[in-house]
Every structure is written in C-alpha cells, then in structure tokens.
C-alpha cells in the first residue's frame, strides 16, 4: 500500500476506534461510574482489532514488527513525556501563565483510575496506530526523517478538531503545533526504542503531567509554547545517538527488526 493511503487509513481507523469502542459504554447513563472505564477498554480493544485486520489483510505486515519485546520501555517513555510537562508547567506558574486551583482531597483517590483511562482511551490506541502500525509500514519504504515528519504532522493536524482550553485562533493553532511536537517526541521514542512501548509511555506521561497538578490556564498560549520547547528538547534527546542513518530506510527497517 502506498504511504499516502497508509496515512489516510490510519486517520480513518483513529476515528473508527473511538466511535466503535465507546459505543457500548455510551448505553450507560452519564452518571454511571463504569461509563468512562468501559469506554476506554472498548477503544483499546477496537484499536487492537482494527490494526490486526489492517495488517493482516491490507498491508500484510507481521504483528511482531510492532515491537512488543520490550514492555519495560514504557517506563522510559513515561519519564520522557512527564518530565518536560512538569518543567513546562513549573515555568508557566513562575511567569503567571497558569494558576493553582482548589483541590478536593477526595478527587485525588480517583487519579490512578484517571491515568489508567487516559492510557487505554488515548495513549495506547493512538500510539498503536501512529507509532506502531504506521511507523512500521512507512519505515519499510521511507527514510526515518520522512517517517518522523509524516507521523508528527499527520498526528498533530488531527488535533484541530480536539477539545482544549484554547479560546482564540492563535491558541488553537498553537495547540495543533503542540500536538505535532508531541507526535515528534513519540516518533523519536519509536525510533529510539525500536518498538511501540516507549512511544506509548511518552504519550501517557504527557497526559499524566497535564493532570497530576491542579492547574488552571491563565495565558494558555504561553503554556503551550513552553510545552512545545520542553517536549521538543525531550524528542531531540531521544533521537541523539540512536544510530539510524536518516537517509537510509533499510537501516531503520533493520533496527526495528532487531
């Protein structure tokens, strides 16, 4: 399958997994505590099924090429995604771009469940598509530099329809660019780790960092710029010394197989 069709298929699959996966849970009432956890599980299961079908019948790529052999890499990824966001939020507090919000101690009990829902609803299924299936498919045909650009820009561009605290057009554009930088760092983790787990960790760490502190945006654009910078630095650090020749797709494919 040509790269452009592989990208479009991933875009369609991303929306399909959300709609199909969350549909059964949507039958529950909105105040049902099981609604969100079940929806998250459904999205992950739908994502796994869709990727399996695409790889089995369309792209004909082996399941093992997604790089399941080092699940411990998710911890490295979490650190690479969490630390930049904590640093950015700390700087945002210092310059007045965010402010503390009142904390209900009882809400802290639910934080582990919130983190798990984010993993199953966004971090794992999205990375399975973009840095798992798509990166593996494109690396067989294109150079790592090209894959880095396509995976980052394609992933980030979809966030133009995402909900966020952005109020103005410049803030919405900055939000999309921040998503592109997140895609860059996740793809860097994919290239560095040779599998999907480190990328999942970066994505998960990003969302943990956004939720672990009770902060309210005051100047959301400033906060986004700071997150872009810190995430970008993390991506560059991940890429540094990872041993892939940027103009040679055979080298990248060999690294993934290894």
Description:
The protein has about 260 residues and is mainly α. The protein has one domain. Helix content is about 70%, strand content about 0%. It has helices spanning about 5-20, 35-55, 75-95, 105-110, 110-140, 145-155, 170-195, 195-210, 220-240, 250-255, and strands at about 100, 215. Strands 1-2 form a two-stranded antiparallel ribbon. The protein starts with a helix and ends with a helix.
Any low-confidence stretches, pLDDT <50, length ≥5? 250-258
Shape: globular
How far apart are the termini?
A: 24 Å
- Our count of helices gives 10
Class from helix and strand fractions: mainly alpha
Give the neighbour order of strands across the main sheet: 1-2
Radius of gyration: 18 Å
- Main sheet overview: 2 strands, antiparallel
Give the overall average pLDDT. Answer: 93
Query: Quick one: how many beta strands?
Result: 2
Instruction: State the share of residues found in helices, binned by percent.
Output: over 70%
Structural domain tally:
1
**Topology as H/E string?**
HHHEHHHHHEHH
Pick out its properties.
258 residues, mainly alpha, two-stranded antiparallel ribbon
Topology (SSEs and partners):
Blueprint: H1 3-22, H2 35-57, H3 73-95, E1 98-100, H4 105-108, H5 111-139, H6 144-157, H7 169-193, H8 197-212, E2 215-217, H9 220-239, H10 249-257
Antiparallel strand pairs: 1-2
